[in-house]
């Protein structure tokens, strides 16, 4: 990685034209041609309106969906995964307002921020290992920016593994498990299956299973 790239990666938010993953950069460039009205860029972390010092829970997803966050520019907004996630966040007091699957719906996070392990949309929702590792240079300062962070919830094994590495832990000793609760880098790390339509349609993740994880987190944050 060049000096310029290292300098760019010290920020928690990538440049709109981040070139570090050529395959993803080219994929987005093609979609900018095809759908010029879409966001089509690295999707920034969704923050609560009162600022980052209020954040005690960070949720880490995999990557923007093509017609979801890549289209709208807000994590988990515009495709199915957000319906379950934001409904659950509102029910647990971690968001307020109404989720209408648009960035201007007025939904506000409460003590919570949402980001992705990989900020650019990958073809077929599948980032490769090098892209996950490269984008960790943004995940690490994203975690570090929250001075009062107590917990991270990872959605799916890829987000979990990248977060464990970002926290300086070893994946072999902190494996992904739905409903898992572990300690890494001074943070309590919760993990859940990803709230994708595929996982809910196939019964890998039920709404009850997802809500149970958030109930445990809500109790933890009040402790
Ligand atoms: S995935 Fe991350 S590191 Fe790769 S190009 Fe996008 S923003 Fe840059």
Number of domains: 1
How many whole angstroms does the radius of gyration measure? 16 Å
Reading the helices and strands in chain order gives HHEHHEEEHEHEEHH
- First-residue to last-residue Cα separation: 42 Å
- Poorly predicted ranges: 1-9
Main β-sheet, spatial strand arrangement: 4-1-5-7-6
Describe it for me?
Helix 5 packs across helix 6 (157-166). It contains eight helices and seven strands; from the N terminus they run ααβααβββαβαββαα. A five-stranded mixed beta sheet has the order 4-1-5-7-6, sandwiched between helices. A two-stranded antiparallel sheet has the order 2-3. The chain has a single domain (4-222), classed as Uracil-DNA Glycosylase, subunit E. The model is unreliable at 1-9 (pLDDT under 50). It is globular, with a radius of gyration of 16 Å. The protein has helices spanning 3-9, 22-34, 69-72, 80-91, 129-144, 157-166, 197-201, 207-222; strands spanning 57-61, 95-96, 108-109, 112-116, 151-155, 181-184, 187-192. By secondary structure, the protein is of the alpha/beta class. The longest helix is centred in the middle third of the chain and has 16 residues, at 129-144. Iron/sulfur cluster is lined by residues 14, 18, 20-21, 24-25, 42, 118-120, 131, 134-135, 138.
Overview features:
alpha/beta, 5-stranded mixed β-sheet, 8 helices, 37% helix, 13% strand, globular, binds iron/sulfur cluster
Report a brief summary of the structure.
The chain has helices at 3-9, 22-34, 69-72, 80-91, 129-144, 157-166, 197-201, 207-222; strands at 57-61, 95-96, 108-109, 112-116, 151-155, 181-184, 187-192. The chain has 223 residues and is α/β, with parallel strands linked by helices. It has a single domain, classed as Uracil-DNA glycosylase-like domain (Uracil-DNA Glycosylase, subunit E).
